[in-house]
Hints:
CATH class: Alpha Beta
CATH topology: Rossmann fold
Distance between the termini: 56 Å
Largest sheet: 10 strands, mixed
Number of helices: 7
Order of helices and strands: HEHEEEEEEEEHEHEHEEEHH
Amino acid sequence: MAGPLDDVVKGLDAVGEALVDAALLSGAIVVTQTNPASLTAAHSVTNPVVRPPVTTSPAASFRFAESSVTADIHEYLFKIRKGSSVFWMGAAVPKGTMNFTRTHVFFHPTVKQAGTTVADDSDYPEFKGNWPSNGTVVGGVFSDGLQRYVAMEGGQLAATNRLVPVLFPFTTMIALDAKHHPGANMFADRPVETLNAVMAALESEVTGKTVTTGKLAQVGVTSFSSGVGAMRLFLSKMQASGLVKEVVNLDGPHIKVEAKTLTRSPGAAPRCFTQAPGLRPEVGYVVLTAKHFDAVASFGGFAEPTRTHARIGWMMYFQAMTNSVIK
């Protein structure tokens, strides 16, 4: 049976929703943190990586060594509302981070691949189905939803001892169709303001202080596999800002329809780690072969070329961030 206290709580909730509705009508970007305290509190994550870092295509005799890295991170999941639209973005923050003027942004692969639906667009508004994750690992392979990328890649960045947050824009298939659905992408409208709204919420969560406006000065961008399409859309919207200083492509050229060249953005340092030979020699285009990973065990259950593809995307962010220009 509901009592007087329940009525008060409902009344407060209604007032809160009314304020949010008014803010949305005024054009505000409303960002709400939704992860449980078990994830937002600093906690340890461990990920397999390969060493040593490479900046040029290795010789045929080169072999990576596998190791694991452990770091303490805070994990967040932000619900972003613009008008009637809802978007979701994950974030990993290395423990001890106090500077929120810099960030990396990581674009995951598309959620529909070769006719297989990895996560359904219809589940996205409520972030259910195979979008969320609980970090489950089976046989050394991350086996659950798209949210797993926050710990997988965020932990690798944190292990480089760079105190820089990394954001994960969760991206639907419809969001990639800029021609027919231009408003479905979270960065189609006010991209810099969107990032700064998330960074303000992130800083507030980490520091416990009320921060109303983010002040980004540097942005590094990375995509894995078919995520290069979402990254390319992001870069097109961010170009005028001059904020993007680094672009990293993890085996995007392996996708048949993708160009076998560096993904570039004006004023940004480009790098690419891929198993696809380039169309021409380019500084920063690093070609890797299955043989280079002969001494690596993780993700060995995949057949080639998927095995090398997985190792580049899931094990090489650590070394890409070791040499990041975002400082």
